[in-house]
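Whether sequence alone determines local backbone shape is best considered at the level of individual chains. When preparing material for the folding task, we compiled for one chain both its residues and its backbone structure tokens. The sequence in question and its structure tokens are set out directly beneath this paragraph.
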Amino acid sequence: MRAYRLLVLAALGLCACVRTVELSSAIEPARSGVGRSTEAAGVVCTPGLLSYREKADFYAFELGEPLCSALLRSVEASYRSAQRADKPYKGQFGRVIQFYLHRSALDVRSLPDGSVRVSYSVGVAVETCGRDLQPRARKLVTGNAVVTRRDANPSDVVKEAAEAALQQVADDTLRLLVAGLDGPRVAPAPQEPVPAAPAR
């Protein structure tokens, strides 16, 4: 009985040492410079994606909502409008984009010189469905990042690597969706002019 209690206490101690890193939910793709579809799109982030928690060594982060938010913004940049929907019905949207988590892998290492190396890779399956909810295409987008920093909080390095990979996923998803658009498009918003440098 005493050995069992020691095991439980040891497990609780390990759990208490895990540092949870909070990822940004404001990641959005770079502008594509092309017109969006005139259709409204429904966005489905599947339960497996939304509930996923990544963990390596003593670091962890909730992947679901930050990833889904980035993907939603990619759809918003591709279609006239985009709305999350758990269970869309036939005819509710012109297109339905479903996202499935394909893979997620985090590696955190302390190097001999005192620096921390974090690598993170994530893959998302993007399935485009028509108004009738029948799948039209399914492709994979990926994000990969490796960050090595010295004299930095390891949690910050984990955050930087994970968010860099999510940024790649958002950018690649936008490119994929834009390449698959058919039919009429909304004209792209004009680029904001870059302020001129002050005269010296």
Summary: The chain has one domain: 38-180. The chain is about 30% helix and 35% strand. The CA atoms of residues 84 and 138 lie 19 Å apart.
